[in-house]
Write a structure and sequence with these properties.
Distance between the termini: 72 Å
Helix content: 10-25%
Order of helices and strands: HEEEEEHEEHEEEH
Number of strands: 10
Radius of gyration: 23 Å
Number of helices: 4
CATH class of one domain: Mainly Beta
CATH superfamily of one domain: Immunoglobulins
Shape: elongated
Largest sheet: 4 strands, antiparallel
Length: 183
């Protein structure tokens, strides 16, 4: 009986993995250090040389930042990951009033094959970081901390972030200069 439960658990894990790694269906944006990191899913109706473009637009249609990429797209659904550095620094409170425009235009076409405009307030992902750790550590001793990252969207939805990178830097809090460097 124990082997049966083990086999059932293994099958559940095998079939759960493809479901959890499915591609996103909507544009998602993360804002940090005056840069927007975007994941834009799109469906190309046919293969060919195309230009993908993203623009951040103000309410007055002024371009605040943009990125364009020429590539060969293949028919089907895929995700384009891009970064846009804004021309002017902007607080998150101001950023939510802006819009993002995505266009896919095949080579030698004057009109876009796909064009989507979304409000950043709808697609902006706001990560929340929770750090569970000690206040101080002993030099040379082993230590541990737990970092939990969740994401929230404008509609009150919240979920755990399944993948990403966390970089931890230990800063020297000693205000005195390094005496060894002066010798």
């Amino acid at each position: 009986m124990h082997r049966f439960y083990l086999l059932v658990c293994l099958l559940v894990l095998l079939f759960a993995e493809p479901v959890s790694s499915a591609e996103p269906k909507t544009i998602s944006v993360v804002y940090a250090h005056n840069t927007l990191s975007l994941s834009v899913p799109y469906e190309a109706v046919h293969s060919g040389q195309a230009e993908l473009a993203l623009e951040v637009l103000s309410p007055e249609n002024r371009v605040l930042g943009q990125v364009a990429y020429s590539t060969h797209v293949t028919e089907g659904t895929t995700v384009w990951n891009a970064k846009i550095v804004l021309r002017e620094p902007m607080a998150v409170d101001e950023l939510v009033w802006q819009r993002i425009r995505f266009t896919l235009r095949y080579k030698d076409q004057t009109t876009a094959d796909i064009e989507r405009i979304r409000s950043l307030s709808e697609v902006l992902v706001r990560p929340r970081i929770h750090i569970l750790a000690q206040r101080s550590y002993i030099a040379g001793a082993q230590a541990a901390m737990r970092v939990i990252v969740t994401q929230s969207r404008g509609r009150g939805e919240q979920s755990a972030v399944k993948q990403g990178q966390v970089r931890i830097e230990l800063l020297n809090s000693d205000p005195e200069p390094d005496h060894a460097a002066a010798l």
